[in-house]
## 1
Amino acid sequence: MMSYPPSLKLKAAAELELRRRRVSHAPAPTFRGAADQAQSTTSREWIISGPYETGKTWAALYRLDTEARANAGGQYAIVRKVRADMDGSVLVTWAKVIAMRGGVNVFGGNKPQWFDYPNGARVWVGGLDRPEKTLSGERDGIYVNQAEELDEHDWETIGTRTTGRGAVTLTPMLFGDCNPGSEDHWIIRRRDAGVLTLLESIHEDNPALHDGQDWTEQGVCTMAILDALTGVRYQRGRLGRWVGAEGMYFTQLHPDIHLVEQDAREGWQVWGALDYGFSHPLSFGVFTQTPHGEIYLLALHAVHKWYIHQHAQAMDELLQQLGIPKQSLRIVAGHDCWATGHDDPETIADKFDACGYRLERAVISRVIGARAVGERLGNPESAVAPTFFIDKRRAGRAFTSLARMVHDPRNTEDVLKINADAEGRGGDDDYDMIRYGLMAATQTLDLKAPPRTPNRWRQM
């Protein structure tokens, strides 16, 4: 994780503890788990995440108050995406936090603009829609409420105000709290890149809900409400998982059910599916089906801004790893692969054929394809077992793509068309490839047909 040199971290931690003891004689709240870690982390960027009602905001604001009291003349800020969303939410909690230790003056009345401390420290208040003085200069620390509402550009822009230039603290930092979002949210990408420390809180961390041994009266009531949530709200708000999207189409999708480790076996049918793209990713998947009808997405290749020969080489290597010969491998593809242009009479299908991959037209009906995917995923509420699974080692991003799919508001039977961004992230390319592949199985499955090749693989 991006942090400070070890010597500076030790010095900062020691000084932080010393200053904490001098800050106030008021008893400190009880902190557990991630909330406790939030009081001492020295990471340059950190966010406390978790399901609803774990005390994330309280823990982050208490750390902010500690920093302001410990650094005379320090300049801090409380930020949210929209300023109007702060007064009835985060600033209510903030008022309770600063009241515990006292001595803080508010400026701005019912619409606070800043808070002044006896030691000359100041905490500004603002939204990204009205940054004004809040982000006009260098800050010793900035706390972001509901960080999942921001995009990565917002977060990085705020980060340019906490570089340490002119800071009075040893550890300037950008930090916040958030509720879980989708699996490919920028917070997760930033965590995985080692830039941001993500502290994962749970309901047992909150003393109002759990006394360390059992649920409190309030905890029993709160957990009953959270247990009644459904779909993506249950996954995020109750379990704290980064999954899916609002309006999620395939609500039955579950990582514990649909993500597996599975290799194809002798006699199982194999085939491929391809969704072409250049600016957005080309997605190529390899499927296999058991004699009992279960389908597995064995592996996935998805890259944008590559040319056909580059994709073909990567596909060669992928099939070699799987032990599947590409000769006579059936590959279904979107119909745009047969489009011709004035400048290039060769189609995408022609170019792949020159590389040894013969494509055939997929069934591209969006509504029927969405239905086929949904049926294959099963329905646990109706005790319908799933028959489609994804190998998490070689095709895990396909699960993320399915979880990102939402209903088309113009046709609720269809999945909303989503384009990838300039970096090739997001989009529905993997989903399109999956529906092509599953429709191919639905249309031509013949478990009794003899193998078409002498290979140990049955080619569809």
## 2
Amino acid sequence: MLCVILYSFKAMRKIAYVFPGQGSQYVGMGYDFYREFPTARDVFHSAEKALRYDLPSIVFKGPEEELNKTINTQPAILTTSVAIYKVMVELGFPKPDVVAGHSLGEYSALVVAGGVEIFEAVRLAHLRGKLMQEGVPEGKGAMAAILKLPPEKVEEICRQASDVGVVEPANYNSPEQTVISGEKQAVERAMEIAKQMGGKAIPLKVSVPSHCSLMKGPADAFRLKLAQTPIKNLSIPLVQNYTAREHTMAHEVRENLYRQLFSPVRWYQSVQYMVDKLGVGVFVEIGPKNVLSKLIQQTVSGVSVFNVEKLEDLEKLKKVL
């Protein structure tokens, strides 16, 4: 009887697959999947054809400086995440009940949800990175992580620092971590105020002030490409960064991808929504590193969290899914 009850409880817990964004990349990511599975190789070679340059070589051999260029990083993480997911499907792992991704990771989630093919997604990611990089002159923008302060305090800090320039919340990562973005002088002023309030401020090594109003110009240019890209209605709900709500209709997904570029990523709100409203009890992060897994654990309790970036991770996951 106990076994039946436990099985029923397990069956009731919905599964979310989540996908990391920029910053999780490293040289060699996904290589064990590429080496062992033709399915993964097909994904990488589709990306190579879409971009018309040797992306697999950059991912697996580097150099690191080349992989860390935004125009390469974004399609590289997307390709790696989707390749791992395709292998999981081939091996019989269940499809998710819902998907989500952090910033660039939303494009990986979009592919998994059936909204767009990898060939088109990689092109979108490459152009997105290019427009973001070109949108703000080098050295003008900055980002910083603010820790040990609640989000509403960080919002107030940004309002206070905005008298010296643009600075806004960019990533609501967890209840104890908010990333800010904007013009360098204003971000530095916000960091000072945060420290005065008892918080911790860590400058991020980025060249692009993502998810703030400085990205409105690049977003408008990107919108044209989004309009031309064949995006279909989704077969799996996608909880999007802009709304922290699930979407399946192509026109809504497309609009939210546009707005995501110059609006904050509502990550912890998305996680809470998936747990409280959608009944998610298992999160599986698919892709390099485990940044999202840590943020999820900071945000909600009573859920199971796993990450899959290496082949051996599948053995652990097999025991619970």
